[in-house]
Structures are given as structure tokens and as C-alpha cells.
Amino acid sequence: MSNSQHPDKLKNRRRGKELEAAILQAVREELTEQGYSNLTMDGVAERAGTSKAVLYRRWANRAEIVLAAIRERVPLPLEEVPDYGNLRDDVCGVLRSMNQNNIEVMIKAFYGLVTEIGAMPLASLLFPQGRHNRTMTIVLQRAVDRGEVSAEAVTPRMLTLPADLARHELMLYNKPMSEQTIANLVDEVFLPLVLKR
Amino acid sequence: MSNSQHPDKLKNRRRGKELEAAILQAVREELTEQGYSNLTMDGVAERAGTSKAVLYRRWANRAEIVLAAIRERVPLPLEEVPDYGNLRDDVCGVLRSMNQNNIEVMIKAFYGLVTEIGAMPLASLLFPQGRHNRTMTIVLQRAVDRGEVSAEAVTPRMLTLPADLARHELMLYNKPMSEQTIANLVDEVFLPLVLKR
DNA sequence: GCAAATAAGAAACCAAAAGTTTCTTATTTT
DNA sequence: AAAATAAGAAACTTTTGGTTTCTTATTTGC
């Protein structure tokens, strides 16, 4: 027997942040492949090449680890809200941004977490209304400056309406919105309400 | 020893529909008190005063029994859509009808079921878009007849918009909508889009 | 009214998965 | 180089979904 056995079984132990990142990545992969209710701690441990004890040293339970895995992927606020030169394209841009970042995984996790935790701080984490609000404030202010929209038309409801409708689509159909849906929401609902005429 | 023992332990066996109704009621109560993820089959059996075997003779698994318990409570289509004499009040009526029938329980179940089943036929069961569509068709036709709305304004999007926004509110906040919210959705979003002017 | 068929209820059972504990050993810290 | 720290393996407990078996109350059909 050679003394360099287990060529696949590295005894290179990861620790700290490196290990943690690998675990959370494994959670996201299991979530994608298995869905929330079939995601098991054993499965995560095996996929991450570690053991359950390591998971439970860091997170108290399944919900916590999934939450951590998802939280990492919540997009950071856009420093610059891109200016496409008109309100329509700006708002479409905002809605398109809600489509990305593995939205399916986010929603799968969301349903599971709400079921288990029941709380709604979650909603504001996974569907960050505050952020969309800020973005929409900028977008609508620009439209006012351009003369597309009168200042009185900018009400709280108009700030949230496009993202609310988009969120509804995402939650109900559990998949990214089509370009057609985005266009319909903007052209048939939002713009007629705010555009000057 | 008297031969009329067990004064509390009736040997009055319920069967068929009567038993089934008691079980589904127990499911709803457990759902309310425990939430979906803490609802156990043993708990349901005990509360209903029966045994697990009886449950599994009727339903294949936990999701099925919860689904059955909820399905019972989905309101039947309104034979008569009440006519309040104007579009505003008619639409408010439709949204108010979405508030009732233990909406919190419905939503708790909904999140759990989507997590476990993952499917979206659910959505159409628990948030019956078809029904709302039918109701809204009637309501809007009336408005056209009254001259409040022009026929071209009645698009598919306008048929679903009020219920979509209401559903979004319900799913996100997990509680009945306030009168103020209903009024805001109708007055600030829906009516301006469809009313003649 | 009685025998046979049916379904309820009790209880033991299995398997999967969450969560815990203990122990060994690789890696880092001092 | 020794001591402290944390990873990894594995066995273990508990809970719960789901199944099976058996007894017996109730219904059905004659």
C-alpha cells in the first residue's frame, strides 16, 4: 500500500470565510435543484464537502442557513440609476432589474422561509421595497425635470406601483417576467397614470 | 365496576361526510394555531378525535389534506354580483370580498403548499383569477352600460388589475386589506385608468 | 333480525431528516 | 514547539410523515 492514499480525499481543510462561502454556495445549488422542502442539511453538508456539525456551529437551523445563502445574493442598491432619456425606458429598466439575480431561487426560498418563519421582515429583505422606492424617486424626479410628468402626479402609490405589479407577477408565476409583461405593465398601467397629457 | 364506563370516551363512531368535515375543521384550526410548518398529522388526528390511519385513508399526504381543508373555504362564485349603482362601489365590493373567508389561514396554507408542491395551479385555486375575471367582466360591462366607461377601455389588463393589486397586498402583508387601502387602489389606480373623462 | 361487508380507531412500526454530542486531527496562533 | 482553535467523521436522539395490523362499531343486504 502506497502511503499517498486517498488521492481525492484532500486533507486540505478549509476554514473561516472560505468554508462559509462554499457552504452557502452549496445551499443555493441544493435550493435550485431540490427546492426548499427537499433541501436537507445532510445534502448541503455533503455537497459542500463538510459535515453537519460544521453547519450547526454557524447557523441555528435550516431556515437560518437558507436565509444567509439568499441574503448574500440580494442585489446591492444601484449607485447610479441608469438614465435612458425617457420615463418609459427608465421604469422598464427598474422592472428588468427585478428579474435578475436568480429570481427563481429567491422566490423558492421566499415561500419556504415565510412558511417556516412566518415573518414579513423577510419580504422587505427579499423584495426590498425601500430600495425600489429610492430608485423610483430618482426616476420620477427626472421625468418631472424633463417635463414628462407633473410634480403632483408623484404620489407614494405611483412610487411603488410598478414594483408592486412586478412583484405580484414574480410571486404568482414564479419565473422572470417576459419583456411583453414588463411593457404591458408600464404602457397600460403606469404611464397613463403619471404622464402629462 | 359499572358497565357504563368511559363517560367521556364515546363509542359513537362518526363516519363518512360527518367525520370528514370534522377532520378538515381540525386541519383549519391547527393551521391557524400552529401554522403550516408546525401542523402535524398526529396533531390533526388528535384534535379531530380520530387516528392517523383515518386521515391517510382519505388523503395521500399532508399537502393534500391541507389543500382539501382550504378548498372547502374558497368562496363560491357570486351568483349575483351586487350592483351598487356605480363602478367605484362595485369594484370596492369585489376587493372587499377578497378580504373575507379567513384570508390569513388561506395565505398561511398557500405559502406552505407552494413550498411543498411548488406548483401554480394552486394560485388559481386559492386566488381564483377566473372568478374575479368573470365578476369584473360583469362589473365593467355595467359601467359601460351606465356610460361611466367606454367599451375600448375594457382590456384584459383592466379586468385583472384590481384583484392583482389586492392579491399583492394580501400576500405581502398577510392580513386583510384596510378600507383605506382598498379605496386607494380603486381611486388612485383603477378608476383613473378606465373612467371616461 | 342477523350475517357479512365496511370503515373507524388504536397502536406498533419504519424511514427520513433535523438537530446534538463526542472524538480525532489538521491548522493556526503564540 | 506547544497550546488553542476549529474541521470533519460518525454515532446518536427526537420528531414526524407515512404504513401496517388488528379489533370492533356501524351499516348494508338478505
Produce the secondary structure layout.
2 copies of one chain form a homodimer.
Chain A: H1 16-34, H2 41-48, H3 52-58, H4 62-71, H5 87-99, H6 103-117, H7 121-126, H8 129-146, H9 156-173, H10 179-194
Chain A binds a DNA duplex (30 and 30 nucleotides) through residues 11-16, 19, 40-42, 45, 49-54, 56-57, 60-62.
InterPro entries (chains A, B): Homeodomain-like_sf, HTH-type_TetR-like_transc_reg, HTH_TetR, Tet_transcr_reg_TetR-rel_C_sf, TetR_C
Domain HTH tetR-type (chains A, B): 17-77
Pfam families (chains A, B): TetR_C_11, TetR_N
3D architecture notes:
Two copies of one chain form a homodimer. By secondary structure, chain A is mostly helical. Chain A has two domains: 16-71, Orthogonal Bundle (Arc Repressor Mutant, subunit A); 87-194, no CATH class. Chain A contains ten helices and no strands. The longest helix of chain A has 19 residues, at 16-34. The structure holds a DNA duplex (30 and 30 nucleotides).
Q: Helical segment tally of chain A? A: 10
Biggest sheet architecture of chain A: none
Distance between the termini of chain A: 86 Å
Tell me what portion of residues of chain A adopts beta-strand conformation. Answer: under 5%
- Largest interface: chains, residues each: A-B, 29 and 29 residues
What's the order of the H and E elements of chain A? HHHHHHHHHH
Output mean pLDDT of chain A: 87
Number of domains of chain A: 2
Please tell me what the overall shape of chain A is: elongated
DNA-binding region (chains A, B): 40-59
Pfam family, one (chains A, B): TetR_N
Domain HTH tetR-type (chains A, B): 17-77
Protein name (chains A, B): HTH tetR-type domain-containing protein
